[in-house]
Each structure stands twice: as structure tokens, then as C-alpha cells.
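Take a sample.
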Amino acid sequence: MTDKLFDHYSAHASAWDELFDRAGAPHPHCSTLVKRLGDLQVTDFGTKRTDADLAFVNQGVTFSVYSDRRGVEKIFPFDLIPRPIPAAEWARVEEGLVQRLKALNLFLKDVYHEQRILKEGRIPSELVLGSKGYRKEMEGFTPPGEVYIHICGTDLIRDAAGQFVVLEDNGRTPSGVSYVLENRAVMKKVFPYLFQECRVKRVEDYPQRLREALASVAPSGASRSPSVVVLSPGQHNSAYFEHSFLARHMGVELVFGPDLFVHDDVVYLKTTRGPQRVDVIYRRLDDDFLDPEAFRPDSLLGVPGLFRAYCAGNVTLANAVGTGVADDKAVYPYVEEMIRFYLEQEPILKNVPTYICARPDDCKYVLDHLEELAVKAVNESGGYGMLMGPSSTAEQRAEFAGKLKDNPRNYIAQPVVTLSTCPTWTEDGPAPRHVDLRPYIISGKSTWVLPGGLTRPALVKGSLVVNSSQGGGSKDTWVLE
């Protein structure tokens, strides 16, 4: 008899499994999902996987890995077994994410104005003012709508006890939401009946919600229907697929730096009908490259005079210039304190305990315990600039020890948290693979959280690194009604 999908599945010995409890029974909220998938024969599931892969190829869903010699452009690895989250649990996660983003926005407003949190010693001034993401040019300036982070991707992990905790915040140009939307479209084609039976919350509203949020914080001089554009560094960027995807689905122009110009401190788009004023720019390039007059003079990606127009209050940039200080990994440990300071509330979502290597005592502890810790460069992303102590070699630890001693401010360290696992298809059938979750929070006049987000499985057995650039993939995340 042909094997059914979960006949030989065995959950991870010490991690929380997203579908099954310790006894091997499905969690109550996903019993219908497990039954329907579990009734599938492995050969039938393989056919559905082929259908899904073909859909991704046809839709051109790709990302880039610059370091891979076999080719830069990759079809995004997608796993067909979804990751379900019950409604009650999601409601609390959503509340915690809204609370966190509110505090981060208040923090940015404060550090570029009164700096109360620094003066009162709640966060060390040198950590904030010495951050690569801190922009002196933003001091005293308030963005239109008083929103700094319009789109945030906060990375969550579930620990061995099943509790969601925050691993880091991405408040500059968080990527990945296009894969959430494409994953859902493919899943609906492959498993239409499952959505009807499991009652999964919609994610398709994201582009419309994003456009409405951006329009809501347009400058005061904008028309009743503000002009919004997506500014991309170009097709060689690793997230270019997402830039074009979001522009298309929001119904706005995708533009590059040379498509825009500034006249009398107002930004215009060059069109065949003549110049068209631009009110809001959802920019997907870093601060340094935005404006060669204000930042890097060698940038060919930005728009000369853009920052001047921004400071004149004639255009909204999302996210605001200078938000990098809020997602600096050395500032991250203080977000719980920001919530207490600005909101007078206890944090709903907790941080992972973190050692700040800029502190001499923390740095000494990290150097003495490198084999136990995850050490991260504070301004790197995508799994780069990182040491996973338990799986590292003596040579790698020695190299990192030298980097820590040379520039302690550039590193933090955390205990290695055993991420939860989710059944994921492998060459040997379904097996537990570690996953994280990146929900997306949109903030304009109001704040909205996408139900679910990007679940990234580490496709390598035992690996805790889920980034696509390091061999990770993605799953559809189902928030159940």
C-alpha cells in the first residue's frame, strides 16, 4: 500500500512542532488540516508539488543570491505544508506587534528631537548616536504624518515552550511580503478545498492597505488623490521581483532614480505627458543612495535634491530617512524599555536575551562562551556576518574573537534558541525543519498587521538559519478564523 503523507513523520525531540504535540497528535486548531493532508498519498503530494513549482516558474517568482557561482537568479524554494496559527494566539501577537511599532515610532521622534530617553539614561547615548543608522541630518525634522516606520517586518521565533518571542525588527526596507502573497495564490490553486474547510484569514488585501497607508501620510500640499511611486535601485537588486510586484498590485508607477527630478524642492516624475508631481515615495534603497547631494555623492541610484524636497515637507519617504537606528541590533535589546518609557505598558512580546558587546562585561562573557552563542554583526542582514557557536569550528571562533576585540560595538550575542519546527518536504519525505515568522505591520494614520506573514523554513537538516540567501525557503502561514 502506498504511504500516506505523515505516516513516517517524527517530530523534533526538543523543539515545539507547529502541527503535532509531543505525543504525536495534531494540535486542536490544525486537526482538520492534518487530517486532509494526512489522507494524501505521497505520490499525490508529489504531483501537487510539481504543480506548485510550475506555477512559480510561470510567474517568475525569484530572488537573487549574489554569492552563488551556479547563477544569481533563483526560483524561491516553496514548501506546500502550511504553518497554521490559531486565532486567539494571533490576536495577542498582533496586539504585541502594534505596541512595538508604536514605541519604535515614538523612539525615532524622540531621538531626532528632545532625546528624553537618552537624557534620562534609559538607553546609553553612545549606542544610539554612534549607530550607523543614526542620521544627524534628521535632527529637528518631523516627517509628514509624524510616521517614521511605515512598513515594518518584525522577525518572530517560537521557543521550545511554544511562546513567540522577537528576534529582531526590520524598520528600513523589509522585504519578503511578495512571497507571502504569491505563496497564497499558489496554495489556493493547489489546495482550494482546504481553504474552505480550515477558514483561513485573507492576505490579499496587503497592497491596497499599503497604498491607503502611504496616501494617508502624504504631505499637506498633495492633491486629494496623492501620487505614490515605488522607487527601486533596479533589476539587479535581490528584491527587484518584489518591487515590481508591489507597484503592479498597488496600481502605482515603479520608478528608478533617473525617472525622477526635483524642481523648486518638489519631486516630479518624467512622463510622456510632461512632469507629474510625486507626493509619496515608497523607496526600496538605503539612505546612503537616496540623494547624491545629501549622502553618497557617487550614488547613481538616487535623485539629486530629494532630501532637500523631503526636508521642505513636499514629499513623504517611506520608510523615513534615519530609521536604521531603530533596527540596529545593539539598540534592539532596549525596545522593551522603550515600551515602558513611552507607553507606560509592559511589553506583550518579549525579546530574546541579548549580550551587547559594546559593554565590557558582556563582551568578556561572549568571548568566553563563543561556542554556546549566536553572534551577529549589528548592521548585517540575510544571515551574513554571523557566527552560530554550537555548529562553528575553532578556526571560525578564533576569527570572530578577533573581530569582537577589534570592534565590539559592531556585535551582539544571544543564546541559541531552539526554533520551532514544522513538517517540511525533504528527499526522504516530510521531516521537521526549523522555522521563523516575519509578520508585516503597516502604519499610516492607523496601523494594520497582515494576518500571518512569511514563514521561512531552514531547508538544511538541523540548521537554525532560515534566510533565503543561506538556503532557506518559505511556507504559507495560515491564521485561522
About this structure: Residues 87-111 form the longest helix (25 residues). The chain has 13 helices and 23 strands. The chain has a mean pLDDT of 92.
